[in-house]
Amino acid sequence: MTGWAVVLAFFAYLILPLVGILQFTFFDGPRFTLAHYLQAVSDREFQTYMGHSLALAAATVAVTVALVTFTTYWVHTRARWLKPVLEFVAFLPFVVPAVTLALGLIQLYSRPPLVLTGTPQLLTLAYGVLAMPFTYRAVENALGAIDAQTLSEAAQSLGARWTQRFLTVIVPNVWPGVVSAALLTFSLVMGEFTLALFLVGSAYETYPLYLNQVWRSDPKYGAAIAILSFLITWGSSVVFLAASRRAPGQVQAALK
Amino acid sequence: MPYLELEDLHKAYGHTAAVAGVTLAVERGELVSLLGPSGCGKTTTLRIVAGFEVPDRGRVRLDGRDITALPPERRGIGMVFQSYSLFPNMTAAENIAYGLRIARRPAAEIRRRVGDLLDLVGLADAGDRYPHQLSGGMQQRVALARALAIEPRILLLDEPLSALDAKVRVALRAEIRRIQTQLGITALYVTHDQEEALSLSDRVAVMSGGRIEQVGPPEEVYGDPRTEFVASFVGSMNQLAGVVGPDGTFQYRGHLLRLPARRPVPAGRGGVLLVRPEAMAMEPEGEAPASPGLNALSGRVVTRTFLGPVVRFVVEVEGDYLSVDVPGTARRAYPQGARVRVVFDPEAGILMGGTGGSVRGAPK
Q: Which one of A151, B130, B134, B231 has the lowest number of neighbouring Cβ atoms within 10 Å?
């Protein structure tokens, strides 16, 4: 019984704030209304900024998954001596505050030869840094669990070049880890505020920045679009998960 | 000309030499085992042949061609690993087909060949199963089929049976030998298990400290070991340290033993007389010797271990512990502490030169 009580308390802890927000948006006094949600339909700003956030999230996922998965595999099988370095680097984003990271990037990229401040490209790269530990950890664990070294050697003895080994043997077997890392990265970007504020601000306004702005003038609408964003992120994850089920098979098919 | 030639291979990791001068020639269709304890360099030697390790010095030649610098994926070598290493995301049939797909062979050929190989390893019905749905023995059969699918120029097996339980191990051992002779494929087989090496090899190369100590047919390595290491590693050996006396005699702690006549040794030299436990027999001390002319030593039974076909007695003789195997069917039972006479034919002894009389403890 005590066990169930704890589990119930856990869910209450997670869900109650959400219930609170829902109640706040659905009722103006005692009257039920959808007006605050319908407001979003005609709000071009909301749609644009949500689009920015989704694009940033997708780009960040693509960049980190491709870059980190491959690097982790390479270090795991070919350059083990680099592993401590990678471990340390993967720890940094947790230690360095977002503000520090943002200021550092501004310092570096606001002068020639690379003037990138205010561009979504720079924000994507910064998110890549932030998301790197999740992908690294997930892929590294998956590689350890499948004995990637020996599988790689087995494929090699059968004539597979390294690109073939990576795509047909390694990727399909670390895929569940890659997918969960991608989901984490995606939701991380959808909710990120500090880096967006410092690096792009109004030049490429994202959904969290817009939310912050709306919240001050119209709290009911702010709460409504927070719920909408929750649904959109969740919906994208479901679509993404469904699509990823088939991906390793397609890689296989590419080989045939 | 030999089919596979290893010429003076050296490989060191930091200051540790893993392989220190391995030279070996393997004939076409031959199965040669590399036998030795862990760390003797056998696996490193195999990995050099596979191309996963590059030797610091020396050459590997296959079918007359120097392949020392060729990357593994271009060597056409079939490899079977201790950990099976099947691709977990592919069925047994897809695993077997992998190398053929990489080589872009026609689909019809792949299908036919996979079917043939599943038959060959006795898994005709298991093609659709994933590795995690197969037992260890079955997985290793699939791995063998996968390695054979590409029609490799040589088959390399790295302790392929070590992870399996005893019964499967013996069955699969015979299976590997059957398939290897049936296909006439050249094979290099790494193992630390002497029984395995002796039972399935055309020749056994016993390794120690990065070197090959002796190469020969199983009977020769077992019956006529050339070094003390080979003698003690391949099978069990009793060791009697002493000094060679005149006229083919051997002084062992005050006892006069006769040496085998085949290789006369100059008197006065220190040496170790080696005798296999199964070459020794026991008699109660009180009785007259059953057959004169045998070497005889008095001792006391310390332990008795029933091993099935034989009973192994450990007998204390002059402070040394000798192992004596008596057939399990023998009617006489020697209780612990019984005074006995250990006897053996002088011709069963093997004299090794000079450890200067140091005697090791109880043999294995």
A: B130
CA distances from B111 to A248, A254, B96, B106, B116 (A): 22, 18, 10, 9, 9
Q: Domain for residue A13, yes or no?
A: no
Q: Do A146 and B88 touch (CB under 8 A)?
A: yes
What is the domain range of residue A244?
A: 38-255
Strand B187-191 and strand B154-158: the pairing is parallel
- Distance between A176 CA and the closest CA of chain B, angstroms: 12
The answer to whether A201 touches A209, Cβ cutoff 8 Å, is yes
* Nearest residue on chain A to B94, alpha-carbon basis: A252
Domain presence at residue A139: yes
Our count of domains for chain A comes to: 1
Which domains does chain B possess? 4-232 (3.40.50.300), 236-353 (2.40.50.100)
The answer to whether A158 contacts B102, with C-beta atoms less than 8 Å apart, is yes
Whether residue A181 lies inside any domain: the answer is yes
> Both tokens of residue A140?
């590294």
Taking an 8 Å cut-off on Cβ atoms, the answer to whether B102 and A164 are in contact is yes
Q: Within a domain: residue A191?
A: yes
Query: Three-state SS for B18?
Result: strand
Query: What ipTM was reported for this prediction?
Result: 0.81
Q: Best of B77, B89, B188 to disrupt the A interface by mutation (most A CBs within 10 Å)?
A: B89
Q: What is the pLDDT along chain A (256 residues), one digit of tens a residue?
A: 788 999 999 999 999 988 888 888 898 888 888 888 888 888 888 899 999 999 999 999 999 988 998 899 889 888 889 999 988 988 888 888 888 888 888 888 887 777 787 888 889 999 998 889 988 988 888 888 888 889 999 999 999 998 899 999 998 988 888 888 888 899 999 989 888 888 888 888 899 999 988 888 888 899 998 888 889 888 888 887 887 776 554 444 444 4
